[in-house]
Amino acid sequence: MDKLHITQDDDGFWMLSLEREDGDLSLLAHRFATPDHLIENANELMASGKVKAVILIDPPREDSSVRQAASPEDSADPAPRKAGV
Predict the structure, then answer these.
(1) Among candidates 27, 33, 26, which has minimal Cα distance to 11?
(2) At CA 64, angle to CA 32 and CA 41, rounded to 5?
(3) For the chain, what is the largest distance between any 2 Cα atoms, rounded to a whole number of angstroms?
């Protein structure tokens, strides 16, 4: 079964990644200050039938103060990340 991972990147922003059964990992959304919108997105993807998956959510990091870049161009897209790793 596919997995939707909601995790934080190295800058403390939340992101949504899709892990396919074959192990392929893709970044779907990123740069959110909280996981709330990503949880909604993951549930909508499943409810629409576009994705049949389980949702895995990492707990917030203790040092999760978001270190925002001056502009989105200042930071590259993060690599997708698995929850619990």
Answers:
(1) 33
(2) 25
(3) 39
Give residue 70's pLDDT band: very low, low, confident or very high (50, 70, 90): very low
Q: Which two three-digit tokens encode residue 48?
A: 């629409």
Whole-model pTM: value is 0.81
The residues, any chain, with a CB within 8 Å of residue 39's CB and separated by 6 or more, are 6, 55, 57
57 pLDDT above the threshold of 70:
yes
Q: Cβ-count burial of 66 within 10 angstroms (0-12 exposed, 13-18 middle, 19+ buried)?
A: middle
List all residues 6 or more positions away from 9 whose beta carbon is below 8 Å from its beta carbon. Answer: 15, 30, 78, 81
